[in-house]
Design goal:
With about 220 residues, the chain is of the alpha/beta class. The chain has a single domain, classed as 3-Layer(aba) Sandwich (Rossmann fold). It has helices at about 15-25, 30-45, 50-55, 85-95, 95-110, 125, 140-150, 160-175, 195-210, and strands spanning about 1-5, 25-30, 65, 70, 75, 115-120, 135-140, 185-190. A 5-stranded parallel beta sheet has the order 2-6-1-7-8. A 3-stranded antiparallel beta sheet has the order 3-4-5. The longest helix is centred in the last third of the chain and has 16 residues, at about 160-175. The radius of gyration is 17 Å and the shape is globular. Belongs to the cytidylate kinase family. Type 1 subfamily. Pfam families: Cytidylate_kin (PF02224). It comes from Spirochaeta lutea. It catalyses: dCMP + ATP = dCDP + ADP; CMP + ATP = CDP + ADP.
């Protein structure tokens, strides 16, 4: 079974997807972590930030997705992926069509013969257009910026985070490939005034309504 969740940065995708995956015992797949891994490798290898250079230099077959981390060969990556340098560069790298195709291939291959909760910005429209359950989480920029600010994982001010999210939205919506957009058959939830528990409850109800998979809950 594939549960695909999309939405802009800070809409609650990661928290909700991880909760659902843990509850069902599914593999949690975060596409953003894969793009961050690619960006991390670009910085580590001091690569020229060009589509062709990155595509040729990244060891794609060594990148593997696990429940709580991404691995490159035997190196586990987690906290390293949230450096501010990566935050600034990942939107550009993730906009390259060849890179998106390579990352999507990793995600699809990982999900074969697996029950998966996959979240990102084009999971419901490009990567898993035939997903069993599709969800689109949304929220105002102000709400999303406040969530990021309250997480305390960035040294940026609220205003800086707000501006970064606003710019990220524009980049994601204008990508030539894999642009952020809402699938017409996805459950739409505006999470601005909802707690994570309330959002998860609504998603769980959607899964419960999927007649083929009611036995999962």
């Amino acid at each position: 079974m594939i549960i695909a969740i999309d939405g802009p940065a800070g809409s609650g995708k990661s928290t909700v997807a991880r909760y659902i995956a843990d509850k069902l015992g599914f593999l949690y797949v975060n596409s953003g972590r894969v793009y961050r891994t690619v960006t991390f490798l670009c910085l580590e290898k001091d690569l020229s930030i060009s589509e062709e250079a990155i595509f040729k230099s990244i060891p794609w077959n060594e990148i593997s997705i696990h429940r709580d981390y991404i691995a490159v060969n035997l190196q586990q990556l987690s906290d390293e992926l949230h450096h501010q340098r990566i935050d600034k560069l990942v939107p550009r790298i993730s906009s390259f069509p060849m890179i998106r195709k390579a990352v999507n291939n990793i995600i699809v291959n990982t999900s074969k013969n697996e029950n998966v909760v996959a979240e990102g910005r084009d999971m419901t429209t490009v990567v898993f257009p035939d997903a069993d359950i599709k969800v689109y989480l949304d929220a105002s920029i102000e709400s999303r910026a406040m969530r990021r600010f309250n997480q305390g994982i960035s040294d940026q001010t609220f205003e800086e985070i707000y501006k970064a999210i606003e710019e990220r939205d524009q980049v994601d919506q204008k990508k030539a490939v894999g642009a952020l957009r809402r699938s017409t058959d996805a459950l739409y939830l505006d999470t601005s005034g909802l707690t994570i528990e309330q959002v998860c409850e609504k998603v769980i109800k959607s899964i419960q309504g999927h007649k083929t998979h009611q036995e999962l809950l």
